[in-house]
Write a structure and sequence with these properties.
Strand content: 15-25%
Shape: globular
Helix content: 25-40%
CATH topology of the largest domain: Rossmann fold
Radius of gyration: 21 Å
CATH class of the largest domain: Alpha Beta
Bound molecules: S-adenosyl-L-homocysteine
Number of helices: 13
Distance between the termini: 51 Å
Order of helices and strands: HEHHHHEHHEHEEEEEEHEEEEEHEEHHHE
Number of domains: 2
Number of strands: 17
């Protein structure tokens, strides 16, 4: 049986399912899900990410978090967490860069949240010797200061999609047409969670709602508000998302999200306003949403690139220059990707970010 057969049987039994339910099946089905069955990263996979492009990304994130730890009085026990660590590359670069920060490694306990058994195995190999612990959900993270990074994690969480119709909304669904998966629309209904979107949308506009993200961010922020810490959330998206941003990527090229579920990555743009408001409701401050290029420049990526360049030549030097450009240039990842910092109300924002 394929995942497509399984989803088709589910729709025959239950009727059309929400886009969120479809994404959850396609990405996380225990036997056939996209993430559960493979390592999707890198040149041979379907997409690549900032830490896979250059070691500089994880190094600078690590130093930014270590600076927050220093600024908050070097708590002697803290959780160093990563959500969706992929191949463990960012965490490995972060750990190498922070080795020289006195006391940081001795005080940290590494906590990882990872749905994919394939990637968990890779992370275990990459981080051998650092005793990471995998947690099944955020609520189980220890009650202690929390320093956290999530790069391209929130874009993988399922979203529901709603089309504005008068003062109500029609939910987009996945059903069957002539036996083939196809999009449909539910009946008009009020959506209290979208009350604030009645002010900036018109009939026919589509908005996305990521119901999984809000409780996760609230839990992270309540740890930080209570015990101290900092979270850096890096992803593509905007302050307030508008429009259908569901996309499928297969072998680095866009493809049809309903074709052959489980074989392509599915993502949506992150609605950072929703994350910021969840952090605030749990008692934390949040930074201005900052483009990745600006953030990395402020953290000194160009100095770091020059230091690395001094030891390189030929192809290695060309690829370092290309990586620097790819991470920071406004026409590459520099503007599309953004950083939101979450931090205790009484402290200054993390390095590279403004209040
Ligand atoms: N942060 C990494 C990988 C990004 S890909 C990098 O930048 O390279 C998304 C990651 O999130 C993968 O590790 C994927 O398996 C994980 N993931 C996706 N949905 C998840 C969920 N619901 N719970 C836990 N991990 C999830």
């Amino acid at each position: 049986m394929s995942l497509s057969d399984h989803i088709t049987a589910r729709i025959r039994a239950e009727g059309p399912i929400s886009v969120a339910d479809y994404m959850a099946e396609a990405l996380l089905h225990p036997s056939y899900g996209y993430y559960t069955t493979r390592d999707p990263l890198g040149a041979k996979g379907d997409f690549t990410t900032a830490p896979e492009i250059s070691q500089m990304f994880g190094e600078l994130i690590g130093l930014a978090l270590a600076q927050c730890w220093l600024d908050q009085g070097q708590p002697q026990r803290f959780t160093l967490a990563e959500l969706g660590p992929g191949r463990g590359t960012l965490m490995a670069d972060l750990l190498r860069a922070t080795k020289g920060v006195p006391g940081f490694h001795a005080a940290m306990q590494i906590a990882l949240l990872e749905a994919s058994p394939t990637l968990r195995a890779r992370q275990a190999r990459q981080l051998a010797g650092h005793d990471p612990v995998w947690y099944p959900n955020i609520a189980e993270l220890p009650e202690q200061p929390l320093f956290l990074i999530a790069n391209e994690f929130f874009d993988a969480l399922p979203v529901r999609q709603f089309l504005r119709d008068g003062d109500g909304w029609r939910e987009k669904s996945v059903g069957l047409q002539d036996g083939t998966l196809s999009f449909g629309l539910g009946a008009v209904a009020p959506q209290p969670a979208l009350a604030h979107r009645l002010e900036d949308t018109r009939d026919g506009d589509l908005v996305e709602l990521c119901e999984a993200a809000q409780p996760m961010v609230q839990t992270i922020a309540s740890r930080i508000a209570r015990h101290g810490g900092t979270a850096l959330i890096v992803d593509y998206g905007d302050w307030r998302s508008l429009g259908d941003t569901l996309q499928a990527l297969r072998a680095h090229a866009p493809s049809d999200p309903l074709k052959d579920p489980g074989s392509a990555d599915l993502t949506t743009h992150v609605d950072f306003e929703a994350l910021a408001l969840a952090a605030k409701s749990a008692g934390c401050a949040y930074s201005r949403l900052t483009p990745q290029g600006v953030f990395l420049e402020r953290l000194g990526i160009t100095d770091r690139a020059q230091a690395l360049a001094a030891r390189l030549n030929g192809d290695a030097l060309q690829s370092l220059i290309a990586a620097h450009r790819r991470l920071t240039h406004p026409e590459e990842m520099g503007n599309l990707f953004k950083i939101l910092g979450i931090f205790p109300e009484e402290t200054a924002p993390p390095p590279g970010l403004n209040a």
